[in-house]
Write a structure and sequence with these properties.
α1 crosses α8, α4 crosses α7 and α15 runs parallel beside α16. The protein is 48% helix and 11% strand. The radius of gyration is 27 Å and the shape is elongated. The chain is of the alpha/beta class and 526 residues long. The strands form 4 sheets. The protein has an 8-stranded mixed beta sheet with strand order 8-7-9-1-12-13-2-14, sandwiched between helices.
Amino acid sequence: MEHHEGAVPLPQPLKQKIKDGIVAVSLANLCFIKVGFDLLSDDDRYFSKLPATSPMLLALVVNLFGLALLAWLVMQMLRRFPNRWLHLTVHLMFLFLLLLPLDFVRLKFSDITDYQLAVFMKQPATMVCGLALLALFAWKHRLIAKIAAEMVAVLSPLAVFMLVKITLVCLNVVQLKQCDSQVVLPPPVPVRAGQPRVVWIIFDELDYRMVFAQRPAGLQFPEFDRLEQQSLSAAGAYAPNDTTIMSMPALILGKRISDVSDADVCDLSITLADTGATTSWASQPSVFSRARDLGVNTALVGWYIPYDRMLPGALNFCVWYPFPLFEPARADTFEANMRQQVLSLGETLWLRQLFVNIHRDSLQASLSVVTNSTYGLILLHLPAPHRPGVYLPKKNQLTIWIMSKVQGYLNNLALADHEFGELRHAMETSGEWDKTWIILSADHSWRESKLYDGRRDYRVPYLVKPPGTNEPLAYPQQFNTILTHDLILAILRGEVANQQAVAHWLDIHATQSATVIGGGSGGRRD
């Protein structure tokens, strides 16, 4: 090779070390690509709880260069020690790390779910092909690893792009699209003597047919059955919509919604079905703001939706948990961010761990508010039995291991029943159970029930238990649960005092609520 006059070529060992460094940095960037995408992308920012901050971004830089340094040192070790088994082991680890960016592509840009992937991997043909590929890799692992390393080096500009954008964001040259305003909740007011108290529980995707009408053989829901024996129970209740992002606003506002948009990261744009007008959720009066006008303290524990931003001034207490796919590795401190970013390399299993954490944390938060007599209107929007399946009923344990969609849903039904039992026990122990109205329902039914038996039923459970001792009362008429908004206000005003009054109230208002399921949601299914 010819060199320009006066140019001093780099020694070959130094050239190789630089090339190794490029591969190492690119590999580390690919491993942390999900974290980088979450922190630097503007997609789905409405659903984020914590804004991306400089400490989060700096934690990513430290993790990225830490992994790159480790990879670089391993490469130098391989060049010094030619042992075949050492090289094979490291090359297998390298191949495993390359699965991380591939899984990110699957999650972000395809409709292939972890359930489908697990089923595919269990196919005999897949296993045979996998063993054949593994044998080929063991035979030609040096060549395959070399080719893969060259491909990783080609993708090194992605690392440059990420590091440059992190720098620009930290220097405030580039502004991320995110909502970083802190919501200040008003303090509670003194509780008025004799004020009715309502606990409204929404289990996400709880299905009437699976729980009551056609319960699968072998399943038992003792807590739901016990509540049914003390409640008005509707057999024809329909949720406002088949997606959470449209159903929950409709339930809370008491208005039918035909479409939503999350283009505004701090608010949700909603289109009202009855008028066709488009407005913002946060600007609309809600069941909580109207309850506050009555002098009632309000509390909400939920997930998926940023409820504190959507109900400004209407809640005295609010805790909500972001959907893990939209916020996989964010925390409040630099150290916690580093730890969660490293744990997020677990990909699917880490996302399941986040779901497990939501189940645990939301239940604990719910237990604290339902036993607190300060709050007169409480909404619990709890994730069970929404997928993924994370519960083992026979062991009464939460798990991160993958199970089929059908088995996961059925197991999560048992989890919802168990969680309701925990809530009831805590309220009975604190003396609040017999003083409280309980309204239990769902935001939509099981959307994937056709996987179970080819059928789809849009009905959701709807149980209303007044304070004190009650007998079971079946309510057969069809209605849309959007009327819960008005029913709660009627209870808080003292206009409805017992089961018979609830049935009479429903007779009057049920015909005014549509039972049509539909509407747009911008393609969002949750």
